[in-house]
Write a sequence for this structure.
């Protein structure tokens, strides 16, 4: 296949994905009384936000963004979040689990399971209940991880915010069932049918800005359990014998910095990342420690209300 034909096929494929996502965004906004878009500051959030702005242009977004803030994100992520939303006049809600913060729950003393449950799952459920949101958009994709592959586009949650895979509704011919009773809610995934490579091709096509941590640079890291963990601030606890070293690394996925592994890379542009990905045989989420802290970890977290 010639390069020109290959590019045309890719653009056609992206156009189909874009149209489907915009349809889901508009359908949800019309169908639910009080939707919100979860914003994790990563590449998928940026693509989802870009699609939402396209879907409702020239009007402002008909829903706010919600960032569930663990307080342990990379400093560059906070800077990017604040500058991007301020520059585009986007309403941003930030929610933290104050009780867990007061108890000092952190990823070092309490382990990834307890930390994630308190700072992400419980915090998210608190925020949704506090504001009475009945639908929450998220940037999860089915290709990320096996429990996410089970998800419908409309993911029904009971009045406790919990997910039961056997109670999900069929979505034949892309028809979504958004009927809920009081206290119940829906998680909505407009990027369900996208892949990681689709996301990067779309970022390149639409020139979407992303956090610089996705691009390779010299960064201070320590080797821990087979992962390169970045020393992002003074709160990082070094183990006996650990000494940070400068490595040329980047991140394929972004979360809390003590729980996110970097990969060695020389990719400094979106084109470089796409080239690197076509040669990689390693999962995008290999560096997310919370995915591997117990058997069936992500599915158990999702059943409890994790996104």
């Amino acid at each position: 296949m010639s390069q020109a034909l290959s590019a045309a096929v890719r653009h056609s494929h992206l156009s189909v994905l874009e149209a489907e996502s915009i349809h889901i965004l508009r359908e949800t906004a019309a169908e639910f009384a009080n939707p919100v878009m979860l914003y994790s500051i990563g590449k998928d959030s940026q693509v989802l936000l870009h699609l939402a702005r396209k879907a409702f242009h020239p009007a402002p977004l008909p829903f706010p963004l919600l960032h569930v803030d663990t307080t342990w994100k990379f400093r560059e992520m906070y800077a990017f979040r604040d500058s991007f939303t301020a520059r585009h006049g986007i309403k941003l809600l930030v929610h933290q689990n104050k009780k867990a913060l007061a108890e000092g729950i952190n990823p070092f003393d309490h382990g990834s399971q307890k930390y994630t449950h308190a700072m992400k799952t419980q915090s998210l459920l608190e925020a949704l209940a506090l504001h009475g949101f009945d639908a929450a958009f998220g940037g999860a994709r089915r290709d990320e991880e096996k429990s996410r592959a089970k998800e419908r586009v409309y993911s029904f949650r009971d009045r406790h915010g919990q997910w039961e895979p056997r109670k999900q509704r069929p979505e034949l011919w892309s028809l979504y069932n958004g009927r809920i009773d009081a206290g119940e809610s829906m998680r909505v995934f407009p990027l369900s049918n996208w892949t990681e490579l689709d996301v990067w091709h779309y970022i390149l096509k639409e020139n979407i800005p992303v956090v610089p941590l996705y691009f390779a640079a010299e960064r201070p890291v320590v080797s821990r359990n087979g992962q390169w963990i970045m020393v992002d601030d003074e709160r990082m606890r070094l183990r006996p014998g650990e000494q940070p070293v400068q490595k040329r690394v980047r991140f394929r996925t972004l979360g809390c910095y003590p729980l996110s592994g970097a990969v060695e890379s020389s990719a400094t542009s979106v084109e470089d990342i796409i080239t690197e990905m076509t040669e990689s045989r390693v999962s995008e989420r290999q560096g997310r420690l919370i995915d591997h802290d117990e058997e069936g970890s992500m599915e158990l977290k999702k059943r409890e209300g994790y996104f």
The first strand starts at residue 35 and ends at 38. Residues 95 and 127 are 6 Å apart (CA to CA). The chain is about 35% helix and 15% strand.
